[in-house]
Specification:
The protein is mainly alpha-helical and about 220 residues long. Helices cover about 35% and strands about 5% of the residues.
């Protein structure tokens, strides 16, 4: 049986749809242009997986006598890994961030990721979040909101208010609410002064709001006989 392999047309190709080359190893196959795949790790430990997938996403370099010296696909709208041309729309949810020349850090490059390597980059981000969660004693599922937590009924958990701040009273008074402190059976002069100050401030806030909204004030003159 003869198996034919056609290399992708990198220049001008929006996405390279080619079959996997059976002669490539795991690493080279993951870096080559092709359809979207889920990268299968060789290692089992998370930190070794992270090093492995970062190595897959490293930008391709030019070589001279087997010595790398310069990035090969550092061009706008070209995948920095395989060289496929890809123009991302601004509203595309799968649009990857700007590639960094060391994946996790470094300076941003002029190129981008193709569909295949954008999917692998998303896989890398999820693995990084999983490692971060495990370092802090959390499970990775804590980062994924459940349908129950997104239910608006469950989001309303506030209890009745028993205390008000000065800003709360001013805001409610400006909307037209009348706020009075609780009446004491025996009120001394200091308590009466405090109550009157609060009521006066609330009335002033309401007056300011009415004047700001442009209420027409009509002067009524009393004409004596």
């Amino acid at each position: 049986m003869t198996m034919n392999f056609s290399p992708p047309n990198l220049i001008g190709a929006q996405s390279a749809h080619v079959g996997a080359n059976p002669y490539l190893d795991r690493f080279s196959s993951a870096r080559a242009a092709g359809t979207v795949i889920m990268y299968e790790y060789k290692n089992l430990k998370p930190k070794k997986k992270l090093k492995e997938i970062i190595k897959v996403l490293m930008p391709e370099k030019k070589t001279f006598l087997k010595f790398p010296y310069k990035f090969k696909y550092n061009i706008k709208d070209r995948c920095v890994v395989c060289g496929s041309q890809k123009v991302w729309e601004s509203g595309d949810t799968m649009r990857p961030p700007l590639p960094l020349h060391k994946v996790r850090k470094g300076y941003p490059m002029r190129g981008t990721y193709c569909n295949k390597h954008a999917s692998i980059h998303k896989q890398y981000e999820m693995l990084e979040q999983q490692i971060l969660a495990e370092e802090h004693g959390l499970s990775f599922s804590a980062y994924i909101p459940s349908a129950k937590s997104l239910n608006p009924v469950n989001l309303v958990t506030s209890s009745p208010m028993t205390t008000l701040k000065q800003a709360d009273m001013q805001s409610l008074s400006a909307m037209g609410w009348t706020i009075k402190p609780p009446n004491n059976a025996i009120e001394n002069k200091e308590e009466e002064l405090f109550r009157l100050i609060i009521e006066t401030n609330n009335i002033n806030e309401r007056v300011k709001t009415l004047l700001t909204e442009g209420v027409n004030v009509v002067n009524v003159e009393t004409v004596g006989e």
